[in-house]
Amino acid sequence: PCAWFFLLKGSFFSPRLHRMFLVALSFAYFAKALSGSYMKSTITQLERRFDIPSYLIGVIDGSFEIGNLLVIAFVSYFGAKLHRPKIIAVGCVLMSIGTFIIALPHFIIGRYEFETSVRWVVNSTLNPSPCRPDSLANLTEDGTLPQVPASGCEGESNLSMWIYVLLGNVLRGIGETPVQPLGISYIDDFATEENAALYVGCVQTISVVGPVFGYLLGSLCAKIYVDIGFVKMETITITPSDSRWVGAWWLGYLIAGVITLLSAIPFWFLPRSLPVSRPEVPEKCTPEQTSFIKGSPLLKHKYSADEHTSFIEMAKDFIPTLRTLLAHPVYLVYLCVTIIQLNSLIGMVTYKPKYIEQHFRQSASKANFLMGVINIPAVALGMFSGGLLMKRLKLNIMGAAKFAFGTSLIGYILSLFFFAMSCENAKVAGVTLSYDNIEKISYDKHPLFTDCNSKCVCSSSDWDPVCGENGITYVSPCLAGCTTSAGSGKNTVFSNCSCVGVAGNYTASTGHCPQKDDCDRMFPYFLALSVITSFIISLGGTPGYMLLIRCIKPQLKSLALGFHALATRTLAGIPAPIYFGAIIDTTCLKWGQKRCGGIGACRIYNTTAYRLIAYLGLTLSLRTISFIICIPGFILLSRQLKEEERSAIHGALRNGGTELEVLRKEELVISNSDQPHHPSENSTDRQTRL
């Protein structure tokens, strides 16, 4: 009873500081998750604003992990021996500064200009003709309009503005480094074992709630035009569903920077370590019981952060400690499995809003809204439920591993149904179908120029889509053969379009043609299956994370968490967005053009190849490999647990044998000194002692 009094009272020692740190860490997780998810919600906006392909967006997204890579090993090892809350506070400040730097290019570069033949004309019925029957002398050898650099390009800086976004994201990565390893190890050091899983589950859940607000913020900003407040909105001739639309991407970064800066404040007021419980021992406790309590393994496994060690001593101990960690077979298999699965997960999450935009023809705002309202809450609920189930079921290491594997396997099987949810590509003349056969979609290379627009001098690089009365989208009014136009802005109507109808008196309007097919009916099923799979897979998140913490020795915990984060960021966080983006770029059918020349952002993709190869095929292939590696992982984990159990039994037997030998010697001494006239009493006493 005295032992339990000490331990239970110690677990609630200084509860106010425990709660304060838990709330502060949860808010820091929320802030970093919000800014991180907002970055992913703006990838299409950044592509269009800076006219860059998807693989460069992958480089920008991976630069966050590069920032982590620079300092995470040292922060995890040395930070665990220093003032952890203040190091986390410094990290939050750096994250905030990096977020502000990302928004900086908007205030440096000029207004956004996009390709269009539509003009805003006030009080005028005379509009220039899209089809210009200029002299043939103005044509190039291949029959296209020569490319003339835009005015002002002579003074254009060679340094692309997206470099600032990359550098800001690197600084965000450096600032985020101490939050996870130092925060989680701080909780696990000063919380009871039974509550540690629940606390970690709560923090991880809050970190998943952050992306809800991040994607909702992305949805809101995507609706607002990029140069809001600097241009008249009635002069903007495109809508948010247009592939040239750029939202106010910079606004969300300013908001996220302020929130991250606020999250740093509480950590400045927290102590170096929460006090290890040393309450007064009740009077009933004997000296032996008191000695047992003070030597309790529950207290010994806690890391005492108050032990001051010199920097040189810590540096000398770093390499041997790292070697010991990497010699752990279960830890190595766990690393391989999580690296491969995170490659799949990061690639999928990074480009999922883009997949929804391209495959299901939704606007960026709606795609981000659906991610924030439907997908992310399912993940948050799954992670919290996983932590709760682990505590309720009292899962050990093997139980947690089986639980995480089972949920991941079920989610994998359900994900196979995504292959059946296909949508036909948009019908674009000269891109997905030929001018001669407008009924059948084909991904063969089609010519943009044909007899119906041969009298027009058109640019093949422009992307200014118009919708013909026949339901076919044309790359530009000029390539549709339109000779006249009426109205202005979004209400412009092109007429006498020779490619739309044989008689040449058919009209076309601005923008893509709305596609009414099975895709609209398929989209709700896609969302429902996406929610179910996200929930099931995330159920194993917390048990899998606790497996990482519990499969190693307590003194290696901080280094193991830090090195795990280092490896996953190096081999998953950095390369996954880049090679996913590069493969997605190979499915592009029509590239835009930069204002001063050169290839810009992709305007339309081969959605079939995007779905089967670049998105679903790649993600599920990686997860298949991870399941194969799990087989030797279970074998090694089972061996480790058996060895630990065998060592514990041998240790108990050795301790028990030593105590028994002492008792026998004591019995021998007593029996020699006993009087012969008390045999029964001596026998009973010996039995009691034994």
UniProtKB/TrEMBL annotation:
GO terms for cellular component: basolateral plasma membrane. Residues 21-626 form the Major facilitator superfamily (MFS) profile domain. Pfam families: Kazal_2, OATP. It is a multi-pass membrane protein. The chain crosses the membrane at residues 17-34, 55-75, 87-109, 250-270, 331-349, 369-389, 401-421, 522-548, 560-584, 613-637. It catalyses: 3,3',5'-triiodo-L-thyronine(out) = 3,3',5'-triiodo-L-thyronine(in); L-thyroxine sulfate(out) = L-thyroxine sulfate(in); L-thyroxine(out) = L-thyroxine(in). Its main location: membrane. Belongs to the organo anion transporter (TC 2.A.60) family. This is Solute carrier organic anion transporter family member.
